[in-house]
Amino acid sequence: MAIAMFSSVCLFCSFLFQSFVILQTKIMKLPILILTTRREEGTKQEKMSMEQYLPRELVSNILSRLPAKDLLKCKRVCKSWFDLLTDPHFISNYYVVHNSLQSLEKHLLVIRRPFLSNLKTSISLLSWNANDSKNLVSSDVLNPSEYNSEHKYWSEISGPCNGIYFLEGNPNVVINPSLRQFKALPEFYLSGSSKTYSLSDHSGFGFDSKTNDYKVVVIRDIWSKETNERKPGHWTADLYSLNHNSWRKLGAAIPFPIEIWSSSWVYTYVNNCCHWWGYVDDSGRREDCVLAFDMVSESFRKIKVPRIRGSAKEEFATLAPFNESATIGVIVYPVRGQKKPFDVWVMKDYWDEGSWVRKYSVEPIEEIHKLVGFYGSNQFLWSSRDEGLVWHDCEPETEQMKDLQVHGKNGSLRAARYMESLVSLKRGNEFSWQLVSCSMVPDHLLDPRK
């Protein structure tokens, strides 16, 4: 076993050296790191320190280029690597550095229902190269065995937030696909539920940097069981904390009156705030607006929007993050038509409601039907009329469109950019917190004709 460990370490370090030489420097020779082990009072000890051969900064640079799944193995090489890979600074830096290197490689996290006969949802990781003339797409399916049932399904995807995603459905879950971690949230109960019920709810997901906590906020409308009536603009909100693994009632006031549309499916997390596309009914005239929730201060804010579309019956409006998630924008496109143009409106200054401008317009496109995701940098993810997933880069110099070869029945397609992350979902005693490990298996439903 010691010989096998020794061989694995040597091969791995050789791979790291070759990768670093190709990607960054012209180092002529790097000493091979040799670890020998000896038994002393039942434990393995390092005979030589890694820092004798490689500076910590150099090792950090090399390891930041590796996928998260490989770094999990690296933790077992030696104590100094374990300490480095679990250091909060390295984890934060890895998320920025590693994902910034993926300029040509595109990666998506996709949820969809492949079959009409049941609600079972597939969670897929799609990858392709934007410059690949062969248009090859690879796909793997995240397989949480404990939730592999026709009665378990997900309808919305929120993320990435530092590489963590929230899936809304049955059950609600947070996942880190990079670490193959999958965690079901505890059920929540409406206070006073014996007299009231809810018909619609809207979720938001984000990170509280002050408490290092990931949170889910859910807004619900409340109806009376006695009268089956609902006061317009009457909402209640609950907040989930990953650190505490529990729900609590939010005391923050929702700025009434406001209603929330159900057509905005793109994760829009900007300046610590999640956002929903809504409207105010003013004497029978509906005026669009945005509802924001700050994950740090746990407060709501209503953002005014100019008249950027004619009618909700004729045009969809979908929120999206812009300018490296520094502000929000809205994509407006027609509900009907074989070919669909679209306009992109952006707040130039996130804190100034008067700074809305139309950034650009795109000529009619035949392949698109409904916006189901946003990749960033003017890259859009659409469902087609045959319920396939289409990636569209609308930059004038690089404009291109790609059929990603996956389909979702009954409008179930949702997509988000996939980002590698070392952020763990583990908090405290995981036995009682139901953290599930997942496997990644080949996607046999990838369309072989494409």
UniProtKB/TrEMBL annotation:
Transmembrane segments: none annotated. Residues 48-94 form the F-box domain. InterPro entries: F-box-assoc_dom_typ1, F-box-assoc_interact_dom, F-box-like_dom_sf, F-box_dom, SCF_F-box_component. Gene3D superfamilies: 1.20.1280.50. PANTHER family: BNACNNG10540D PROTEIN (PTHR31672), F-BOX PROTEIN CPR30-LIKE (PTHR31672:SF13). This is F-box domain-containing protein. It comes from Sphenostylis stenocarpa.
